[in-house]
Specification:
It contains eleven helices and 16 strands. The chain is an alpha/beta fold. The strands form four sheets. The protein has a seven-stranded mixed β-sheet with strand order 1-11-10-7-6-2-3, with helices on both faces. Helix 2 packs antiparallel against helix 9. It binds pyridoxal-5'-phosphate (PLP). The site of pyridoxal-5'-phosphate has 14 residues, from helix 4 and helix 5. Keywords: Aminotransferase, Pyridoxal phosphate, Transferase.
Length: 393
């Protein structure tokens, strides 16, 4: 490729920020160096491995305390958490739900599980998340508010909710987004799957939505193997979320009665045990992730054609996944970098294929998606495991 000098330099400096003695460096691997063995062993020794147990209760309390959200309900994965968040926010069959096109598939799938229609919105470079100002202009053009509901004038469908996603741990600009939600009678649900440990204006993400979803999948900041949680400051929604994710069973000593169609979305105790141990280490993980991001930033700044994604000025990010951005979208350059890095055993990858380009979502409504389409061609993620920050402290 012509003009590959800068890119070759980039590969060198990224490599210099990483340990030199490893053949392969994963994108994000879990770290178990606390009480994981002890807590999991306790589950096995006592027989409490399944859907109830003290670690489930403790994990929920610990999550609420850590995030500052009043209630946390542990569930089987982040997608299930999002599904229930949307359902409890009142999303119904045939509603539209605004989501970024630049997101992981779970956001769009969860909307579909409600029988609702994802409506794709653009992102902004500052946060990589929803652009509230562009969204505001768009809604002014295409919606009307009637009897306390927001309608899409083009499709005739109700727009019930918006789901900002805090991309790679960088919080979306929530204040203007909340104002839009208030003006247009749209519910706010945060997809905080990537942002445990991230703060918007001093407050933990997940506090701003009516309900929010976390994920503890194997590649997230902390993991329970697989798992998720619903966060909400609304007491009655929290009770309902617990009820409906645990088969809607009416508590009773021996009778099995259910008052509606519920879901078996419970997080097993053995996974919650892992979660309790992981949460104890989260502060340490965050320090190390920040150290790694810092050393990336320092060396990547020296290279001309790219920048390193840093937290927006109003936020403190968990730096879940580090990202490099080409100054201009350029798929040839992107792929050249991906080839070179991966060839050297430095696992790197582009972000997701945009949701509106997937066959099952291709016909759904969308606004102008120029920024998202650029991001697809200019962004790559580079290794971000906690362990990589340990030599950089
Ligand atoms: C990880 C993730 C989820 C949830 O994924 P699960 O694997 O179901 O836990 C949801 N949204 C985003 C943006 C994610 O990155």
């Amino acid at each position: 490729m012509r003009d590959s000098g800068d890119l070759d330099k980039l590969v060198k400096v990224v490599s210099s920020a990483l340990p030199g003695d490893q053949k392969f460096i994963a994108l994000h691997e879990p770290r178990f160096c606390g009480n994981e063995w002890e807590y999991v062993k306790e589950c096995l020794d006592t027989g409490w491995v399944s859907s109830v147990g003290k670690f489930v209760d403790r994990f929920e309390q610990d999550l609420a305390e850590y995030t500052g959200v009043n209630n946390a309900i542990a569930v089987v994965n982040g997608t299930a958490a999002l599904h229930i968040c949307l359902k409890l926010a009142g999303v119904e069959q045939n509603d539209e739900v605004l989501i970024p096109s630049f997101t992981f598939i779970a956001t769009a799938n969860a909307v579909s599980y409600c029988g609702a229609i994802p409506h794709f919105a653009d992102s902004e470079m500052r946060t990589l998340g929803l652009d509230p100002f562009k969204l505001s202009n768009y809604l002014r053009d295409i919606t009307e508010v009637k009897r306390g509901h927001c309608y899409n004038k083009i499709t005739g469908r109700r727009i019930k909710a918006v789901v900002p996603m805090h991309t790679f741990g960088h919080p979306v600009d929530l204040d203007p987004l909340m104002e839009i939600c208030a003006n247009y009678h749209i519910e706010l649900i945060e997809d905080a799957a990537e942002s445990l440990g991230s703060y918007y204006k001093g407050q933990h993400t997940g506090n701003f939505g009516k309900l929010s979803a976390l994920s503890f999948n194997g590649n997230k900041v902390i993991t329970t193997g697989g798992g998720g949680a619903i966060l909400t400051n609304d007491e009655s929604l929290a009770k309902f979320a617990k009820h409906i994710t645990t088969t809607a069973k009416i508590p009773h000593k021996w009778a099995f009665n259910h008052d509606q169609i519920g879901f078996n979305y419970r997080l097993p105790n053995i996974n919650a045990a892992l979660g309790c141990a992981q949460l104890e280490q989260l502060e340490q993980f965050l320090i190390k992730k920040r150290a790694l991001a810092d050393s990336y930033r320092k060396v990547i700044t020296e290279v001309d054609c790219v920048s390193f994604m840093v937290e927006p000025e109003f936020a403190k990010s968990n730096y879940w996944l580090n990202a490099i951005l080409l100054n201009k979208p350029d798929i040839t350059k992107r792929d050249y970098l991906l080839e070179k890095l991966n060839d050297q055993g430095i696992m790197s990858r582009p972000a997701w294929t945009l949701m509106h380009k997937l066959p099952m979502f291709a016909e759904y409504p969308k606004m102008d998606l120029t920024i998202a389409e650029g991001l697809e061609m200019q962004l790559i993620n580079i290794p971000s495991s906690v362990v990589l920050g340990e030599t950089n402290e």
